[in-house]
Amino acid sequence: MQTAVGNKVVLIGAGDVGVAYAYALVNQGTVDHLAIIDIDADKLEGNVMDLNHGVVWAPSRTRVTVGSYEDCADAALVVICAGSAQRPGETRLDLVGRNMAIMKSITEQVMATGFDGLFLVASNPVDILTYGVWKYSGLASHRVIGTGTVLDTARYRYMLGELFQVAPTSVHAYIIGEHGDTGLPVISSGMAAGVSLRSRAEADETFATRINEIFERTRDAAYHIIDKKGSTSYGIGMGMARITRAIMKNQEVVVAVSALLQGEYGREDIYIGTPAVINRTGIARVVELDLQEKEQEQFDNSVQTLDAILREFF
Q1: Residues annotated in a binding site for beta-D-fructose 1,6-bisphosphate
Q2: Most buried among 8, 73, 156, 241, by the most CB within 10 A?
Q3: What pLDDT is attached to residue 5?
Q4: Which whole number is the average pLDDT over 56-76?
């Protein structure tokens, strides 16, 4: 088995999310070669042509090609966006039956090539499907990453930034747990422009109400976007590009992803959204936040929700 040392990415699934991710990668010049696999051959060829025509404006050259599973043999990263789409009014957990079989098929085909890189899973329900890819691949858990709550956290930081009238890069707060209805904000450790969210919420009931409303808008954002445009794509595509850059540049930055818990938060054998240090090896370590009692109860509920579905398959 050959070890992947380059910056080649294979993207499986070129729907709205996959194309948004590909566009972000090309714009940022993060990788040398992006090979894309999709069942719609004509549309894929058109997207590849279109992306290549934009490379001239990118900071560095990315070779974008129509891919096949053979491309996985020397890939550093395989990104999975394939799967059945989330329908209006449908929760992410409703998708699990259809998409688990797709993950099994994809993972087995990738591993059959001798693939020795990392997986990044974005298909929903992402926490459960990432666990499936880990099991089906046989790889060490640090080499299988889910997008987890990277988008939830981005939405939360953006909305808090609007509240404080600062750039979201000046907001340090996380959504953890399921990428879905049982995720929770960790207010106890959140900071915006150097201001503790917990301290301010305890001192000002009006502020506490406002940040709770922001979380509700964060939690429900996907449903509103899907109702209006059919899917979410740009936010998650850019979040995936951020994870990819952290891997390829060995940045050791903390990103909210779906990672396997091995005792953190008092839980084991579950992939779930949590901050984690990301570098070239994948998940270098999980960052366990110090949760208040109520937050721990909410997190435990999120774990139980995922576990109840997951144990139907494993």
Answers
A1: 157, 172
A2: 156
A3: 58
A4: 97
Q: Is the pTM of this model over 0.90?
A: yes
Positions at the binding site: 13-18, 38, 43, 69, 86, 92, 99, 105, 122-127, 147, 152-155, 157, 172, 232
Is 33 noted as a catalytic residue in this protein?
A: no
Structure letter (DSSP) for residue 148: T
Task: Tell me the per-residue pLDDT of 137-152, one tens digit each, with 9 for 90 and over.
Answer: 999 999 999 999 999 9
167 & 281 share domain: yes
Q: What is the model's pLDDT at position 6?
A: 79
Give the count of domains, the chain. Answer: 2
What is the predicted pLDDT for the residue at 254? 98
Domain extent, residue 248, equals: 150-310
The DSSP result for 75-126, as a single string, is -SEEEE--SPPPPTT--GGGGHHHHHHHHHHHHHHHHTTT--SEEEE-SSSH
| Other C-beta atoms lying within 10 Å of the C-beta of residue 66 | 16
Task: Based on the fold, state whether residues 271 and 186 are members of the same structural domain.
Answer: yes
> How far is it, in rounded angstroms, from Cα 258 to Cα 147?
6
